[in-house]
Amino acid sequence: MPSLSTRHKIELIAVGVIALFFIVIFPLLNAHGMVSNFTINLWGKYLCYALLAISVDLLWGYTGLLSLGQALFFSLGGYMMGMYLMRMIGELGQYKKPIPDFLVFLGWTDLPKFWVPFSSFPFAAAMILLLPGLLALVFGFLAFRSRVKGVYFSILTQALTYGASLMFFRNDMLMGGNNGFTDFKFILGYDLRDAVTQRGLFIATAVVLLIVYVGLRVLSYTKFGLVQKAIRDGENRVLFSGYATAHFKLFIFLIAALIASIGGALYVPQVGIINPSEMTPDKSLEAVVWCAVGGRATLIGPIIGAIGVNSLKSWASRAAPDYWLVILGGMFVIVVLLLPGGIVSIPARLKALWQRFNKKPAEPEPPKPAAPPQEPNVTPASTPSL
Amino acid sequence: MRTYIRLIFTTLTLWLAASSSLSAAEPRATLVEAMLADNDARKIELITSLAGEVDESIKPLLIAWREDGLYLYEPSGATPVPVQLTGEKDADDARAAVRVDTGAPLVDAEGKPVHLVAGDLNAVEHTSMLRRAMKGVLDLIDIGSPDAKKRLQAIQTIGFAQETDKIPAFQKRLAIEENSKVRRALREAIAVTQLKDPSDAVKLAAVKELKELHSLSSYDLIRTAMREADAAKSTELATEAKAALVAIDNHKSNINFFGTLFRGLSLGSILLIVAIGLAITFGLMGVINMAHGEMIAIGAYTTYLVENIFGAGITIPFFGFSLAIPGMNTTGAFYQTYFLFALPLSFLTAAVVGIGLERSIIRFLYRRPLESLLATWGVSLLLQQGLKLMFGSNNVQVSSPSYLSGNWTVNDIIFGWNRVFVIGFAGLIVFGVWLILTKTPLGLLIRSVMQNRGMASCMGVRTERVNMLTFGLGSGLAGLAGAFISQIGNVGPSLGQNYIVDCFMTVVVGGVGNLAGTIYSALGIGLVDQSLQQILLNPVLGKILVLVAIILFLQWRPSGLFVTRSRNLDD
Q1: How far is B421 from chain A (nearest CA, A)?
Q2: 3-state SS, residue B117
Q3: Contacts of B274 (CB under 8 A, 6+ apart)
Q4: What is the mean pLDDT of chain A?
Q5: Do residue B504 and residue A170 have CB atoms under 8 angstroms apart?
Q6: In the 3-class helix/strand/coil scheme, how is A136-198 assigned residue by residue?
Q7: Nearest-neighbour CA in chain B from A343: distance (Å)
Q8: Is the torsion defined by CA of B82, B87, B88, B91 positive or negative?
Q9: Is it the case that residue A376 has pLDDT exceeding 70?
Q10: Which of A85, B96, B502, B518 is most exposed, with minimal Cβ within 10 Å?
Q11: Given this model, what pLDDT does residue A72 score?
Q12: Once rounded to an integer, what is the mean pLDDT over residues B550-557?
């Protein structure tokens, strides 16, 4: 690992402080009643979304692959966790039957075969990694082998999500259909409605996010990380230098899918519901918005974006429910057109503006909003601000 | 029952023989004669002779008779006159009387209308046998209805009741019937009824007739006949029935095949109409317009507005204000021409919105396709919410003009007019786009700019303007698609979302930058989708399989069906 520059040292310290705050101080404050259970639950949700946003960023910001299917992996993880949680309800459901309510409603008396092993947490945890991982491998293999890239990759992943959501909307999938899973009671023997359990889940999410952050940060310093960025900036040159870019991309696609899936698995017990509307293409696009707003091709950007946009959403859906989509859409247009680097790039822009202002005080020219013309084969427009 | 049938049978035969003389008589007079006749046999004969009469007034009279609604007015000494009491009861409980024989009000010697009290009169009598005869006549009366649709329905209903006594009436009608559909129904009805005939020879002929007619609806009846024949060891009949079943099955699969083909073609045409705009903006310009779906919705809402303006007008809650648009209150044929006005207007509205979008956002993103995808998705959210605020989040209803509803049945295959129209319209649009792109100066400019922007610019082409117009054309075509979709489905703010994935798939499969590819892929996807639905009997699964098939197809041809050859590695 190369020696760290001052900037990276600052980032490292900042991340350490923030992580300490989220993992230790925030839960402590909650335990002493200074932070409400609602708040900690809400922030738990934001951190799960941050995991999803990071997975989008790993693909889009670092590798140049805009996947519109990350919500699919997120909700697949959620569904796997949801199946375990459904089994843990036991006979406490509405129908007081040993099988989940929606199956009783569909006229089942026995558990379908594929549901049986989900009573075991280790199995469910393994499936959270295996199923989305397998799907990512198969789809990634097909897509990268035939060199689907750029916009076509986005459209294909969108179609994949669309197809999956159609499938999960059906009742005969035996995955809860339209309503999905809800009414969870216990996780690993702990009551989910208990504040302590929710606090534990929050800490777990924060720890996972920290691990993912550090892991990806380390990865970005390695040769692998360099190749990854080289693929983004000029795939053909990397290919002709002798790297099997398809393998790199497949591996990154797999990691991103796993991160999203874990995020989804942590999301479901904290939110208490998972249904197919979570895996529609719209949700994937929303995750892309978080990433873009926060600042893509940085690791902190997606986290800031996910928390910021979702806080805004929580506020707007109460204050102006009719205009939330307008805000989201407008924000997206503005970020893409005027602030391609996202929130993270604002300090650098201000600095540049300040310098220009000091150099030529005679004509203080505002910064040109549109991005400068790029070489056509460079997919992401903004240069990474690392 | 037997005797009764035989009686009816003989009377019918008699009546057929004497039909010339009897049918010449006034139906009302015949009815009165029946009421006054002294024996039941004669009464039945007279009543039965009314079967298939065209006179519409007979039906209510017969019903009234059956329900004790007809009375005998017996002024002392004179012959009794059957009357019907109509109108409101007056102070003495009396009502106006109408003569059954003429339908005119009953008048006394001085010519004043007579009012009678029901309780003072004797109702015209009827026995159970008479009631049955009346029912038979009532059943058959619609067969002679001047309305062909009514005739057809009556014949089918009666035919499938399989009452052998109805055969002569059918045969009589068949001899004079001119409408080919009704003739076919009559033959079918006769044959179906003959399946109940005790004689094997008649049954055999009936089965042969049904086989020839490929009568779908008699399938179960033939199967029953086959089982009976098997049980009765009449081999010839059983074999013939089996052959008839096979023939009908073949016919059925033919219908399914052509039906699927037709539905696939029309679905493909819908895909083509919605995707052709995208083929221009995405395929030719390379702009990923995620708001393409909203352009479709704008077209559909324009149609909705035009329809309302032709009708009673509409009030739009315009972002807090209320915008009342007065209507023209047109009706009938003129109202239905609204669609012809809506078509160009949808094109224009969507084109104007598209040009606005191009000027304000897309022109900054030509070299950044992924970012154009994201920005236009933001625009799509804005437009969706805008439509929601203007028209409400519920679906609105757009009524189809009469020339688009209804259908056309050929050989049991149903061709809905709107689907036929969609196919024709898709053809017209493709032809129009081809004309614009290849035969107009604008098309020449569009092609030159798309092929080599820098060179075109050097030659003095105003590429900015060409971009704007091309994008306007693509958006306008989406608006046209919306006008069409308003005729076949719901119109709601999220209308476009249902089509956007399909649109992109169609263009990608066809090969970007190639209009012909879009046509082939749209029709291909439509046909595959409908065939899969036919096989799987499950629309959603079919759709998912189509998506999977598309992903696999792209393994084989990563750049779609038709590739624009290029030496550029990044193309």
Answers
A1: 29
A2: strand
A3: B296, B478, B481, B485, B499, B502, B503
A4: 86
A5: no
A6: HHHHHHHHHHCCCCHHHHHHHHHHHHHHHHHHHCCHHHCCCHHHCEECCCEECCEECCCHHHH
A7: 17
A8: negative
A9: no
A10: B96
A11: 95
A12: 82
Q: Supply the pLDDT for residue B351.
A: 96
* Nearest CB neighbour to B504, from listed A143, A147, A155: A155
pLDDT tens across A331-354, in order?
Answer: 889 988 988 888 888 888 888 889
Q: Using CA atoms in the order A255, A256, A260, A261, what is the torsion angle rounded to 10 degrees?
A: -40
| Orientation of helix B128-141 relative to helix B148-159, angle to 10° | 130
H/E stretch holding A77: helix A70-89
CA A66, A72, A75, A80 torsion: positive or negative? negative
Q: Please, which pLDDT band fits residue B24 given cuts at 50, 70 and 90?
A: very low
How many Cβ atoms are within 10 Å of A234's Cβ, its own excluded? 17
Taking 50 as the threshold, does the pLDDT of residue B144 lie above it?
yes
Cβ burial, residue A14 (10 Å; 0-12/13-18/19+): exposed
User: What ranges in B96-147 are assigned the alpha helix state H?
Assistant: 128-141
Q: Give me the DSSP letters along B257-301.
A: HHHHHHHHHHHHHHHHHHHHHHIIIIIIT----TTHHHHHHHHHH
Q: Which residues in chain B have their CB less than 8 angstroms from residue A282's CB?
A: 497
Residues A12, A205: Cα–Cα separation, whole Å: 20
Helix or strand run (H / E) with residue B17: helix B2-17
Task: Specify the 3-state DSSP secondary structure of B415.
Answer: strand
CA distance B211 to B225: 13
Percent of chain A with pLDDT over 70: 92
Q: Which residues lie across from B96 on neighbouring strands?
A: B86, B115
- What is the residue whose two structure tokens read 């109509």? B86
Following CA atoms A92, A93, A97, A98 in sequence, which dihedral angle do they give, to the nearest 10 degrees?
A: -70
Which residue type occupies B44?
I
Distance between CA atoms of A70 and B68, rounded to whole angstroms?
76
CB atoms closer than 10 angstroms to residue B83? 23
pLDDT band at B454 (very low <50, low <70, confident <90, very high): confident
Rounded distance, CA B259 to CA B416, Å?
Answer: 11
Selected residue with higher pLDDT from A221 and A260: A260
Helix/strand/coil for B122: strand
The one-character DSSP state at B124 is P
Output the CA–CA distances (angstroms, integers) from residue A42 to A180, A270, A282, A379, in the order listed.
21, 9, 21, 35
Residues of chain A found within 8 Å of residue B550, distances taken between Cβ atoms: 159
Is residue A121 a contact partner of residue A188, using CB atoms and an 8 Å limit?
Answer: yes
State the angle between helix axes of A300-319 and A324-338 in degrees (0 to 180), rounded to the nearest 10: 150
Looking at the complex, report in whole angstroms how far the Cα of residue B482 sits from the nearest Cα belonging to chain A: 21
Confidence band (pLDDT; 50, 70, 90) for B226? confident
Chain A, residues 43-102, CB within 8 A of chain B, namely 66
CA distances from B378 to A246, A286, A313, B507 (A): 31, 10, 15, 22
- List the beta strands (DSSP E) in B336-439: 407-410, 413-416
Question: Residue B328: phi, psi to the nearest 5?
Answer: -95, -5
Beta strands B70-73; B81-86: pairing state: antiparallel
B145-171 pLDDT, tens digit per residue, is 667 777 777 777 777 777 777 777 777
d(CA A149, CA A162): 19
* DSSP per position, B304-363: HHHHHHHTTEEEEEETTEEEEEE-----HHHHHTHHHHHHHHHHHHHHHHHHHHHHHTGG
Residue of B nearest to A234 (CA): B570
CB atoms within 10 A of CB B249: 13
Based on DSSP, count helices (H) and strands (E) in chain A, helices before strands: 14, 4
Give the whole-angstrom CA distance, residue B321 versus residue A195: 47
